[in-house]
Structures are given as structure tokens and as C-alpha cells.
Amino acid sequence: MGDSNFINEIKKRRTFAIISHPDAGKTTMTEKLLLYGNQIQVAGTVKGRGSDRHATSDWMEMEKERGISVTTSVMQFPYKDCTVNLLDTPGHEDFSEDTYRTLTAVDSALMVIDGAKGVEPRTIKLMEVCRLRDTPILSFINKMDRDIRDPIDLLDEIESILNINCAPITWPIGMGKLFKGVYNLYQDTTYLYKTGQGHTIQQVRAIKGLDNPELDAAVGDLAGDLRDELELVKGASHEFDMQDFLEGRLTPVFFGTALGNFGVDHLLDGLVQWAPSPQGRETDTRMVEAKDENFTGFVFKIQANMDPKHRDRIAFMRVCSGHYEKGMRMRHVRLGKDVRISDALTFRAGEREHLEDAWPGDIIGLHNHGTIQIGDTFTNGEVMNFQGIPHFAPELFRRVQLRDPLKSKQLQKGITQLSEEGATQVFMPLRNNDIIVGAVGVLQFDVVAYRLKDEYKVECSYDNISVATARWVYCEDAKMLEDFKKKCHDNLAIDGGGYLTYLAPTRVNLELTMERWPDVKFKKTREH
Ligand code: GDP
């Protein structure tokens, strides 16, 4: 392997995720991306997740979904000269922590917006997360085959609510039944849409030039409307600027329909052309650049495969620098141990395969036997930890009630392992032997109870408990911290990672406590 090959592999990589509100079209878009990536022949074959997949009650459904999503969590495919890694973010809001952490492992994101609905709450939240690292964002306004809102209003809304400038790359001609295609402002070319071609890649007719009479012949009166509208658009919107895009201040916008498989290729072209190749990542000792030859990576997600045939846990690691080769040794920094990795996995078209080698930007799957935690760093021996892989303060709390008191050891073990995975968070109050489970979404409690029974043979139920929210507590002044621990003893707990946590019975109590202890830090997120 020469240096130039290494640099070349890095330059080819595009690692991104889709951010969207449920139902905006993420799944449909993913399917079409795989179609262009030659990973499937006909769209509609990837998965038949039913329309009730957002349902919260049905266990088996959930298990199925978990089974499906483990194999589709990461998809690698070639497009043009690039190798694209698409990281799936779980659809259900209850797993949003996973989503946040997945976004720490990408170099760019694709925002899919339902053109009829505009900017929706979850998109806003996810954009906030992307902001933390100024992740470059590409945008796709979906469902042009429906009657959507006025495109100019949509861009206005994105600009004002999400606080990012919009640079339309394509502009739609008509909408709904009258959707005729898009005009590319930078190629001065119109691409015509044909209905009923959503399942395969089709030849699209292109017409060069805005004043081309062929355009009038093809789209009729809409050609005149397009010319007028473009005058307005050019005045009101922003021109694409690479620097602004890379710094997360401007998003190139594409219009199309994922269902009709139109505009998806324009977007992919934009992705390979503009989205950054693997970027550097900050550690507690230094910045790691992708081109550093020493291997480094961090774990952003752990998932248990619900397939009963191989009930294994997979840790998803993003390679940050260097080259992974099958059988190589790496240092598990938190444990201070060297491990030989010979059975790592890669994910092509949702199938796991044994991995021979991987480059910066790639995601590799490691078999986890309980030793790997979210946020763990692996290196070639150097001692450092990647930053910015947060745990979020839970909003919901329950006390665990064990049915069979003799099983408290198993309960401890199960609940600790599940909290390592990020499936839930666990708190042990200082003042008694309760076990309190904290979650961001209510579905997590059911998942935990189900998995405790299924995987650890422990049956439990939950009690309500008067905890409104939690904050991780830090204080540089050791004496003050001791003081604080004494005074607030009854509201303090240790979490699954061994960190001191304040469990506030009410929001008001939290505010008062924070006022009373101005030098104690109460944090909503915990980093590794
Ligand atoms: P997700 O929840 O974001 O993954 O959304 P899905 O991809 O499952 O799409 C939600 C619904 O919108 C499904 O019924 C899709 O068939 C539909 N849908 C997705 N894209 C389009 C589109 O471009 N046009 C129309 N009319 N429907 C779409």
C-alpha cells in the first residue's frame, strides 16, 4: 500500500446520515440511494416495514424492527468514483439518543423535508445536533408529486427556522399532478419527470437552456412561469458557496420525489461533488486527522442483534484515521488492553460481511462481549479519547421492582449491560438500594423489561417515582463538592458509568438547587 493509495481511499469516502421528521421519506430515499449505488436491482425490495412501524405497543413488531435495523444501520455503496457510507438513524423518536450519537460519526448530513409540511419538530432538533459540529447539510425537498407548499415559502421557512442559508441547485416545475421536472440553475438544464418509473433507474430527458423552445413544447405554460419564478428566486436566495456549505452556514437544495425516484441522482451528484471526505476529530489530547497513518476509531453505537440464531452484540466503530486490516491489533484505551480484531464486519446492502480492510470514514462492526461501551476509543497504542459522544439526561424515570428477590445479581448485571449499550440509563441512589431506570422515551422501559426477561431471565416491573429530571454534577472545588454531597445526599445517585448525578424531584427544585450552588455545574449531557 503506497501513501497515495491511502490518501486516495480517504478522498473517495463520503460518510453521511439522513435527518428528517418521521414520514418525510427517509426510508424511501434510502432505498433509492441503494438503487443508484447498485446494491439492489429494484426498489421496494429492501424492507417491508409496515405503516404501523411507529406503533409503540407491539413487541414482536419491535423485535422485528430491531432485527431489521441492525443490518441496515450502515450501508456502504459505490457511486461514481466514491465510496459512500450511509448511516441509518432509527425512525422512532424514543431512540433519539442513538440518532444523536450517529450524527457524531458522519461528515455530512442530508435533510429530507416533506414539501407539503415544511420544517417539522424533529428536523429542528436534529439540525441543532448537526450545529454542534457545524456538519455540512444537503437538503432535499421531497414529495413534489404531491401538492406541496410554495417552494419559495419553503426556502424562507428553512432559512428562518433552521437559521441556514438556502442555495437552490435545482428548481421545480409545477407540482402534484402537474409536476414536470426540475431546472438545474448551474447546468442551465431542465430534467423532465415521468410518472410511474419509481422502481428502477430510468433515462431522463434533458433540455439544455432556459430559452429553448423545446422546453415550452415539453412543459407548456409552466415554462413561462419557471422563467418568471427564477428571476425571483435568484434575487431572493443565495448562490452556492463551497466555504459556507462546509462551515454549515449554507445548504444546497434539491427538489424531487423519492417515491418517483426523481432528483435523487442530482442529490447524489451533489454529495460526491461537494460533501467533505472524512474530517478530523477532536480527542482529549490532540486533533486526529483522517490522513494520520496510525489507526484510530471510536464506538458510536452498540446494538444487540435480536436474531435468536446469533444473539451477539455489535459495536459500530467509525474509523477516524489509519487503515484497518483484518487481524490487526488495537488498543482498547478505556481498558488499557490490546485486542486482536480478526472478525470485524462490514455492511453492504444491509448484509453483514467479513471485513478485510477499512479506511477513514468507514464503519466497522466489532463483536462485543460486554467489554465495549459507547464512546470507547481504539488506537494503535496511543492513549487518547475521542470527544463529543454524549449521553443525554433522561426525562422519564421508574424504579425497578424485581419479582424474584433472589435474582438481584442478574438484575444488576443485565441492567448494567443494557445501560452500557445506551438502551437505558441506570441510577443507584446514595440513600437506599433502589435501582432507578431513566429513559428519553417511554418505549425504552418496555424494551428493557423485555430484554431483561429474554436475555437475563429476570422478571421485573416498574414503579412510578417522583423524579422529574437528572443532571450530571461536576465541581472543581473538592471541598465544596463534599459539602454539596452532604446537603443534597437524598437527591444524589451514581449512574451506570460511575458518575455523580442529581435526581431532581421537580424542575423548580432543580432551579432552586442550581441557584443555591452556583459553583456546582449541572450538566444535561455526559461525555465519556
Ligand atoms: P420515513 O418515515 O421518513 O422513513 O418515510 P417513508 O420513506 O417511510 O415515507 C413515508 C410515506 O411517504 C410512505 O407512505 C411513502 O410511500 C411516502 N413517500 C415517500 N416519498 C414520497 C414521494 O416522493 N411522494 C409521495 N407521494 N409519497 C412519498
From TrEMBL:
Binding-site list for GTP: 20-27, 88-92, 142-145
UniProt keyword Cytoplasm present: yes
PROSITE patterns with a match to the protein in the record: G_TR_1, G_TR_2
UniProt keyword terms in alphabetical order: Cytoplasm, GTP-binding, Nucleotide-binding, Protein biosynthesis
Domain spans labelled Tr-type G: 11-279
Gene3D superfamilies: P-loop containing nucleotide triphosphate hydrolases, Peptide chain release factor 3, domain III
Subcellular location, principal: cytoplasm
One function term, GO molecular function aspect: translation release factor activity, codon specific
Function: Increases the formation of ribosomal termination complexes and stimulates activities of RF-1 and RF-2. It binds guanine nucleotides and has strong preference for UGA stop codons. It may interact directly with the ribosome. The stimulation of RF-1 and RF-2 is significantly reduced by GTP and GDP, but not by GMP.
Name the record gives this protein: Peptide chain release factor 3
Organism for this UniProt entry: Ketobacter alkanivorans
Gene (name only): prfC
